[in-house]
Write a structure and sequence with these properties.
By secondary structure, this protein is an alpha+beta fold. Helices cover 59% and strands 18% of the residues. It has a three-stranded mixed sheet.
Length: 97
């Protein structure tokens, strides 16, 4: 720990900020949302209402019931594609509604 008024390396300050739990959770959520958009493409994005990532589960709300059923059928493939895009296993399950 540094004393008040002592200079710190900017990379250490950034690392400390991003290591805080709430910020890390928000950054993970944004990463997963971006991976969803990139992986699913513009056509599926048109029918996507909401995408939220929490504790290993991706919650997706869609406007099309046909697309919902299709994605539920291909759930494991979608998880694999998104995790490959992220380069890490963030998603363990997807809830589609």
């Amino acid at each position: 720990m540094t004393k008040r008024g002592e200079l710190k390396n900017i990379s250490k300050v950034i690392e400390e900020v991003f290591s805080q739990k709430q910020i890390r959770i928000g950054i993970d959520n944004i990463k997963v949302q971006d991976a969803w958009k990139k992986t699913m493409g513009k056509n599926i994005q048109k029918y996507t209402f909401k995408v939220v990532y929490r504790k290993g589960t991706l919650y997706v709300k869609l406007k099309s019931s046909v697309l919902k059923e299709e994605l539920k059928y291909e759930k494991h493939k979608v998880i694999k594609l998104i995790n490959n895009e992220l380069g890490k296993e963030y998603i363990k399950d997807i809830e589609i509604s």
